[in-house]
Amino acid sequence: MFAAAASPPPPSTASTRNFRHPPPSRDLDLLLLLIGAALAALSAAVIYIVLQYRSPIYTVTEFAARGMNLTSPAPISPQFDVTVGVLNPNRKIGIHYLKESFVKVYCGGEILGLGVLPHFYQPGESATSVRATAGSFAVLLDGAVKTELSSAQRCGRVPLVLTVEAPVKFKWFVNTREFTAKAKCDVVLDELSDKAQIVSQRCDTDLHFPA
Q1: Residue 74's domain spans which residues?
Q2: What value, to the nearest 5°, has the Cα angle with vertex 168 and ends 162 and 171?
Q3: Which of 31, 53, 110, 183 is the most buried (most CB within 10 A)?
């Protein structure tokens, strides 16, 4: 009489537990990151080398100040109405200035006003003027800053700093990815009033490529 054959052992699941494939999301994220970096580098090369990109030229043409009472110990609520001329010197490159563009006004490293710039498109080889209002509420000026401003106003030379930070896209045949354009303008006014005149101004620009 033959003995009954032994039943085969149940299949082991240990191997499936020990050799699971890692989720593909990490590899996909890394691939997308590398592709993004390559596209950024390619965009930079096309803009600078092929199209011979030149930075826009900014000029502060109007700068009115309100609410700058330097004799009162109470907090102030300054407001600055500024007009900036923008020249795009590039023949083949248009510039889209996107939303979330900001302008700030400083004195002695202390911020006096913050405002939003309008979004617009500027064709190549064109000039336009952009107006913005930068303000703050209940600012308590540092004593040293207040003294500096009072002394400068008596001399008719009040130094202020205007900064612009704007996300932009460049247009050639197609739109590029987004970059960040920055400008810093050193402005000297004859007084802090709504009738202030610009004594001197100088703007420097910079273009930041995404990481």
Answers
A1: 55-208
A2: 135
A3: 183
Q: Give the Cα separation of 211 and 70 in Å (integer).
A: 43
Main-chain dihedrals φ then ψ at residue 139, nearest 5 degrees: -90, 125
Distance between start and end Cα atoms, the chain = 79
Q: pLDDT by residue (tens digit) across 107-160? A: 988 899 999 999 999 999 999 999 999 999 989 988 888 899 999 999 999 999
Measured CA to CA, the distance from residue 203 to residue 186 in angstroms comes to 6
Q: Strand pairing partners for 58?
A: 86
Q: Which residues lie below 8 Å from residue 72, measured CB to CB, with a gap of 6+?
A: none
User: CA torsion sign, 39 to 40 to 43 to 44?
Assistant: negative
CB atoms within 10 A of CB 191: 17
CA–CA gap between residue 179 and residue 176 (Å, rounded): 9
CATH code assigned at 161: 2.60.40
Structural domains of the chain, count: 1
Quick one: 100 exposed, middle or buried, by C-beta within 10 A (0-12, 13-18, 19+)?
exposed
C-alpha separations of 158 from 51, 67, 107, 163, 187 in Å? 40, 15, 9, 16, 8
Which residues share a beta bridge with 161?
106, 186
Can you tell me the distance from the alpha carbon of 96 to that of 169, in angstroms, rounded to the nearest whole number?
5
Dist CA 79 CA 136 (whole Å): 7
pTM over 0.85: no
